[in-house]
Structures are given as C-alpha cells and as structure tokens.
Amino acid sequence: MKEQGVITRIISGNIVEVAFERSPACEKCKLCHDLERGMVRVEAVNNIGAKREDIVEIEIPSSEMVKGSIVVFLLPIFFLAAGYLIGSALSGGNEAVGVISGILFLGLSFLAIRWYDTNIQEKEALRARIIRRAS
C-alpha cells in the first residue's frame, strides 16, 4: 500500500514520523496511529535522506501485515486446539485435562506472539519505508 504524507518529526537516526490523510484501507490495517481531523501517523524508515516537512511517498509492506495477522489471529487457535488434543490424548480421553492443557497452550501462544513481535520490530520488516520525495 502506498500513501503520500508529510514528515512531521525525526524520531531517531533514519526513523521518521509521517502524517497523511486516513484512507479506507486504514480501517483494516491498524498499523498507523490516529491524529486529529482524519489524519494518521506512522513511523517510517527514511533511507533517502528526506527532511522534516518534506512531502514523501511511503510504502507499507502488505505481505508483512498478512504474516503478522496470521500469527496474531490463527496461532492462538492452533495452540488451543493442539493443547486440547495433546492433553486429551495423554490423559486417555479425559476432557477436563484436555481443556486445561488447551488453556495452557493458549497462554504459550501469547508468549510466541510476543517473541514474534519483538523480532519483527528489531528487523524493521513491518515498518513503512519512504520510497521517494513527492514533488
């Protein structure tokens, strides 16, 4: 997804904050933070040397957003089901043990999501990137 916005501040190094108008795609993504009057802001990697107040075009990586959504929404369901099946099988079909095991595995899925979130932030894979100055 590509958007056009204005660099509002330099955060650190090559990370900047870009503000732009909310588009219909913003409702699904939730990567950006709300500002006033229908505007949103996002942190972006600035490898082109753009300065504060420059109008730039940014690209938000759609494939990484899909991967993130899969991890956040499907991983807990998978862990819950796997935990139930494993607990039930190991206890000889005892449903209560299966439920408790499923809940424990669900908790483990949240730890896995937290680990994924930490790694994705370090790699900057989910950050928007400035691709050019707009003229």
What is the gist of this entry?
The chain has 135 residues and is α+β, with helices and mostly antiparallel strands. The protein has helices at residues 26-29, 62-90, 95-123, and strands spanning 2-12, 15-21, 33-34, 39-45, 55-59, 128-133.
Structure description:
The structure is a single chain. With 135 residues, this protein is α+β, with helices and mostly antiparallel strands. A five-stranded mixed barrel has the order 1-2-4-6-5. The mean pLDDT is 84. The longest helix is centred in the middle third of the chain and has 29 residues, at 62-90. The protein has helices spanning 26-29, 62-90, 95-123; strands at residues 2-12, 15-21, 33-34, 39-45, 55-59, 128-133. It has two domains: 2-61 and 125-133, OB fold (Dihydrolipoamide Acetyltransferase, E2P), CATH 2.40.50; 63-123. A hairpin with a 2-residue loop joins β1 (2-12) and β2. It contains three helices and six strands.
Strand order of the largest sheet: 1-2-4-6-5
SSE string, helices as H and strands as E: EEHEEEHHE
At the fourth level of CATH, the homologous superfamily of the largest domain is Nucleic acid-binding proteins
Mean pLDDT score: 84
Q: Rg from C-alpha positions?
A: 20 Å
Distance between the termini: 19 Å
Count of individual beta strands = 6
SSE class? alpha+beta
Q: Note the main sheet.
A: 5 strands, mixed, barrel
Judging by the overall fold, what is the CATH architecture of the largest domain?
Beta Barrel
The outline comes out as: elongated
Number of structural units classed as domains: 2
Classified by CATH, the class of the largest domain is Mainly Beta
Which blocks of ≥5 consecutive residues have pLDDT under 50?
none
What is the CATH topology of the largest domain? OB fold (Dihydrolipoamide Acetyltransferase, E2P)
Number of helices: 3
Into which percent range does the helicity of residues fall?
Answer: 40-55%
The proportion of residues in beta strands is: 25-35%
